[in-house]
């Protein structure tokens, strides 16, 4: 029974991974791609690792997969935020139909 | 020309879907594990997602697109290593996953810092 629950978690994770990468290919802008891909792929990979933990059980591999879940949840938003900040400071343009850019207004206020 | 490229992409995607349905990867597994069909098809789906990431690395308009795609590819290969842990029954694949996650995080931080300093000459 717990193996079936683990396989269901792995299926959810696979769906999230695939649609995140589809957004990475399809969306028009760096920031849109970052928003789609980072959130979807983080949740999908954490779901796959949790399914691995449920199937393998309390062995060394299962506990290492729990450790890997904690590590990915802590580091993926940091990496995404740093990439977005670096791209905005390097002068990557927004999409032509974007209507608001709060970070540029904040930089205007600082200068 | 654009219709030609669209046609090649559709042939590629339909071929991968047909492979997923009719033939999971049989040569990576012990033959007596119970979930061979499911995990083989799961490996096909993750490899397809990695190919989409490689497309974005190959044809990103700016450097930031490539950095985003490298970060996402690194996170997804951790999931690939987790599936290989179950399907082959060898527990050291998850060690590869942990090391890959660490290295991908450091790589994304360093590349984005480099990108931030590059356009900072005003």
UniProtKB/TrEMBL annotation, chain A:
Protein name (database record): Na+/H+ antiporter subunit G
Classification via NCBIfam families: CPA3_mnhG_phaG, PRK12674.1-2
Gene source species: Candidatus Infernicultor aquiphilus
Keyword Electron transport included in the entry's annotation: no
Keywords of the record: Membrane, Transmembrane, Transmembrane helix
Transmembrane portions of the chain: 6-25, 37-58, 64-84
PANTHER family associated with the record: ANTIPORTER SUBUNIT MNHG2-RELATED
Top-level division of the source organism's lineage: Bacteria
GO molecular function, one term: sodium:proton antiporter activity
Keyword match Transmembrane: yes
TrEMBL record, chain B:
Membrane-crossing segments per the record: 7-29, 35-55, 67-86, 92-111
Pfam family of the protein (one): MrpF_PhaF
A single cellular component GO annotation: plasma membrane
This protein's name: Multiple resistance and pH regulation protein F
Species per Swiss-Prot/TrEMBL record: Candidatus Infernicultor aquiphilus
Keyword terms, alphabetized: Cell membrane, Membrane, Transmembrane, Transmembrane helix, Transport
Keyword Cell membrane annotated: yes
Cellular localisation: Cell membrane
Stated family: Belongs to the CPA3 antiporters (TC 2.A.63) subunit F family.
Matching PANTHER family: NA(+)/H(+) ANTIPORTER SUBUNIT F1, NA(+)_H(+) ANTIPORTER SUBUNIT F
Major location (coarse): membrane
Topological category with respect to the lipid bilayer: Multi-pass membrane protein
InterPro entries cross-referenced by the UniProt entry: MrpF/PhaF-like (IPR007208)
GO molecular function: sodium:proton antiporter activity
């Amino acid at each position: 029974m717990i193996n079936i629950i683990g396989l269901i978690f792995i299926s959810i994770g696979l769906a999230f991974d695939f649609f995140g990468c589809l957004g990475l290919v399809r969306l028009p802008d760096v920031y849109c791609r970052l928003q789609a891909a980072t959130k979807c792929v983080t949740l999908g990979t954490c779901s796959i690792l949790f399914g691995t933990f449920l199937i393998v059980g309390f062995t060394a591999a299962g506990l290492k997969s729990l450790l890997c879940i904690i590590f990915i949840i802590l580091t993926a938003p940091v990496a995404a935020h740093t990439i977005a900040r670096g791209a905005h400071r390097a002068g990557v343009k927004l999409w032509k139909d974007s209507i608001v850019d709060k970070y540029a207004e904040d930089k205007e206020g600082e200068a | 020309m654009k219709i030609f490229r669209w046609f090649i992409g559709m042939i590629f995607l339909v071929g991968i879907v047909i492979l997923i349905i009719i033939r999971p990867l049989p040569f990576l597994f012990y033959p007596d594990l119970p979930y061979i069909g499911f995990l083989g098809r799961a490996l096909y789906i993750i490899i397809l997602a990695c190919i989409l990431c490689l497309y974005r690395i190959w044809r990103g308009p700016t450097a930031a697109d490539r950095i985003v795609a490298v970060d996402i590819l690194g996170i997804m290969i951790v999931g690939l290593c987790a599936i290989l842990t179950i399907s082959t029954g060898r527990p050291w694949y998850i060690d590869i996953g942990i090391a890959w996650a660490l290295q991908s995080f450091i790589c994304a931080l360093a590349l984005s810092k480099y990108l931030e300093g590059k356009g900072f000459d005003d």
